[in-house]
Amino acid sequence: MAAWPNASAACWDITRPDLCGENIPRRGCGSTMNVKHQCSGATVCVTIADCGPRTKSFCGEATCCNGACRTNRVIDLTPSAFSAIGNLSSGMVPVYIYE
User: Pairing between strand 32-37 and 2-4?
Assistant: First the structure.
């Protein structure tokens, strides 16, 4: 399961990923997406179940590994989904998100 900042118009108004330069497609609850760790290549398929994160609160926040970086927090994963691609103690990892 995951939270996506553009699950609905109301969600978009709260999260405002556009303020961080993110052009995120609308994907409603029940949609599935693949999340791939940029460094390890580990992938997990998640179902959008909620609105979030408040992307505008994390503009410019970066996470890197082996020189691969990702700026802005754009998806929240459940602990089990995150564990499938990374170590929970790392908190954040750079990822590719695709359908």
Answer: unpaired
- Considering Cα of 84, then 61, then 76, then 79, what sign does the dihedral take? positive
Beta 68-71 vs 62-65: how paired, if at all? Answer: antiparallel
Number of domains in the chain: 1
Question: What is the rounded CA–CA span in Å between residue 1 and residue 45?
Answer: 9
Residue 55 sits in a domain whose CATH number is 2.40.40
- The pLDDT > 90 percentage for the chain reads 40
DSSP result, 71-94: ES---EE-HHHHHHHS-GGG----
Residue 56 sits in which domain range?
Answer: 2-98
pLDDT in tens, 23-59: 888 898 999 999 999 999 999 999 999 988 888 888 8
Classify residue 79 by burial, with Cβ atoms within 10 Å: 0-12, 13-18, 19+. exposed
**Paired residues of 68 in beta bridges:** 65
